[in-house]
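Bit of a strange request maybe. I'm writing a small parser for structure token strings and I need a real example to test against, not something I typed by hand. Could someone generate the tokens for this chain?
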Amino acid sequence: MSVSFNNGVPFWTTSNGAVYIAGGSSANCTVSVCPVDLSVYGYRPSIGESGALIALYAVCVVAQAILGWRYKTWWFMAAMLLGCVDEILGYVGRILLWQNPWAHAGFIMQIVLITIGPVFFSAAIYVLLSQIVEYISVKHSRFPPKVFYYTFIPCDIISLTLQAVGGAMSSSTNGSSSVGVNIALAGLGFQVATLTVFALLTVDYFFRSRPVWRNSDIHLPRQFKIFVGFIALATILILIRCCYRVYELSEGYSRTSKALRDQGLFIGLESIMVILAALALIIAHPGPVFSKGGYKRSLNDEKVAQLSAGHKTTHDSMTSSNSQQVV
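Reply from user aminoacidic:
Good idea to test on real output. This should exercise your parser:
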């Protein structure tokens, strides 16, 4: 038994002289005749991990559909559903690779869909900054709220396009296209840069708006604080994932790449990071925070509610005191 290469494609020759193709769309290797090391990833993806993730993303789909319909947050719902469905199909691809590590269809599904899935989650996050600005105070923002839409959504589309094109080129050549890898890396790098700028602008806005939300007359609702905390968590998780994918693809789809062929690293820094981000964005759904009674809520509305509650409490206390005096 021996392995040989022809134009970068590995061939496996068995002890009886049969030759199997171990790469490309014409691969006919199976786990019964070829060593798994000859596959692109060098391992059989965990079927338990893939199944668990598919189930968790299905839960996210149901939760986002219910919340989106209830609060009429169509853009946020669409972005989250697209991302979750992408991830589900991507992990179906990994199940196909577990069945046969040389399955070309499974390779295409994983490389394209798992790569671009988090881009949709990023899009859902980006629209929230403008809503936060409108909720707290527009005049304390460096830019009008719509500028955030018009800046980050096009950047997300660029990132999505580059990653999709790069993934498609790589999948069509079974990972041998350095051009495809470089395009995908450009898309991932651009997403890292966009997320970083987004995070900096968000921190900058909260710093600039301190006179509003640190005002002694008003307190940020606990629900809003939880909302912001989980947005921050989702952003950090996606950023970590993107940095990992840049590292993973830095050596391309070479069969000598340690990062590409490390399943534990993939599960820890891709699978877990992204599913936690998707779950965090259920808790960070904008509907309960920004919508009430069919209209958009602002921090000024919270102030009025808090002052009204305080006035009612004072009035009830005075009424009770007067009643006691009469008695």
